[in-house]
Amino acid sequence: MRTSSTTGGATDAPRLIDLFPATAVVDGGELHLGGMRATTLAEAFGTPLVVYCRETILARAHAYARVDPDALVVYGTKAFPNIALMRLLAAEGLGADVSTRGELEFALRAGVPGDRLVFHGNNKSDEELRAAAAAGAFVVLDALDEAARARAAGVQTVLVRVTPGIEAETHRAIRTAHAESKFGLVAGDAVAAVREALAAGLDVAGLHVHIGSQLTRAAESLLAVERLVDVAMRCREELGWSPRVFDLGGGLAVRHSLADTVPDAEEFARELLLRLRRHWHEPAQAIFEPGRSLVGQAGFTLYRIGVVKRTAGVAYAAIDGGMSDNPRPQLYGSRYEALLANRADEPSSGAYRIAGKHCESGDVLIDSVELPEPRRGDLLAVPATGAYTLAMASNYNGVPRPAAVLVADGEAELIRRRESLDDLLSAEPSNQG
Description:
Layout: H1 13-16, E1 25-27, E2 30-33, E3 36-37, H2 38-45, E4 49-53, H3 54-67, E5 72-76, H4 83-91, E6 95-98, H5 101-109, E7 117-119, H6 126-135, E8 138-141, H7 146-153, E9 157-161, H8 187-199, E10 203-208, H9 219-239, E11 245-247, H10 265-279, E12 285-288, H11 292-295, E13 299-311, E14 314-319, H12 328-332, E15 339-340, E16 350-355, E17 364-371, E18 379-383, E19 403-408, E20 411-416, H13 421-425
Parallel strand pairs: 4-19, 5-6, 5-12, 6-7, 7-8, 8-9, 9-10, 10-11, 11-12, 14-16
Antiparallel strand pairs: 1-2, 2-3, 4-13, 13-14, 13-18, 15-18, 16-17, 19-20
């Protein structure tokens, strides 16, 4: 148990700590991470603040690497594009999965080499194809006309993305392999894309599949592997071509609330690899594309509580952030837990609705959470916000986006500075000069 707090209260702090990064503990009534107090972090860097644990990120990276030393593990950059985090992962041998020119630039500035870059996208521009070619990345063909365009852009090595017709058990907005998905090619078209890419003189390295995000079970992913192999067998029979690479995608979930159950990352990846080896007997390298499962639980957000009030029987505690720094509750109905970081061992006084500061009635981060009676100035810590929060953040209501820090061994490194009002106005021509 990573806590020294009492277990008599109803805040569930001893259980909630399991949703936080590996080095999180409650000591003397206060949340600590990597040897640093939450109050110290808030005072030094302000709030809202996304706090990442270096040890947790590395542990997750090593878990994927243990599955197969010959596999290529590429970080799903869209989870949180950040040079410092990507540089940390690159030093451990990981690459990057990118889908835009901007994400590619993050990877290049983090020092990720071209042979560890996978460039996705359902509507790549010619500029993006040229940038991917210049970087030496794998380019994932997503449409029948992309082979010729990739060749013209100077791309050398490609994968073909297969749409296996699978309904992943996740929110409909983040399913990516169902029959009507905008991503990839159905089996027959995938075979045709391989044929056209070979005819265009491209090095067709292999096939790719990805079925969705926040996946809470392995069943659909295992079926996707089998359907990917089916396409590989068709290519071998019809074209005399066999893949030397199988990109098995990513999308594994993390726990955002105590009610969530998710597979262990290492076991999940190992199951996929074993299923591939069982159905495909020729030598082939595997690629994994974890994003959320690398950084999701490694990060949590600190907010400062302001207004506390009751209305129509609902107790509200308002924070200094909200849907501009974490839109997932509004987009996907995501549920979160929370604790008072500066009073984590106190008993609950009841359920509170955590509201943001934005001009939307729907700006609610958590509909109901048990807390000690909040006071103005308290710190609220929301776990498992390391992925798809800052990455999807906006400046709604003219609110600057938060800072982020990486914590380890009693020290905090600023890895993303807080935006200023000048940053918000910098794109306005009338503000220049």
